[in-house]
Amino acid sequence: xxxxxxxxxxxxxxxxxxxxxxxxxxxxxxxxxxxxxxxxxxxxxxxxxxxxxxxxxxxxxxxxxxxxxxxxxxxxxxxxxxxxxxxxxxxxxxx
Length: 95
Fold this sequence. Notes:
The chain has helices at residues 41-46, 71-94; strands at 11-14, 17-20, 56-60, 65-69. It is 32% helix and 19% strand. The protein is built from two helices and four strands. The chain has a single domain (11-94), classed as Pemi-like Protein 1, Chain: D (Ribbon). The strands form two sheets. It has a two-stranded antiparallel ribbon with strand order 1-2. Strands 3-4 form a two-stranded antiparallel ribbon. By secondary structure, it is of the alpha+beta class. A hairpin with a 2-residue loop joins strand 1 (11-14) and strand 2 (17-20). The chain starts with 10 loop residues before the first strand and ends with a helix.
């Protein structure tokens, strides 16, 4: 499974709404009886997703958005945020 965290954001704000850019439409997925969904084959191929791969599932019920993030990418993102917070704390203490 590939990791896709980039230093630049994949989103931008437009009139208070986060819009996704550089996104590709892969089709649709239906929720089955047991709550499972099947990801489109081309998406699995492009992202090198294999049977048994695990994802962190994130979402916002208010905007009806769901995202799948591989754990390595989430860990990298959280590390970056943590470093930024530490930098801010240091700057605040210096004042």
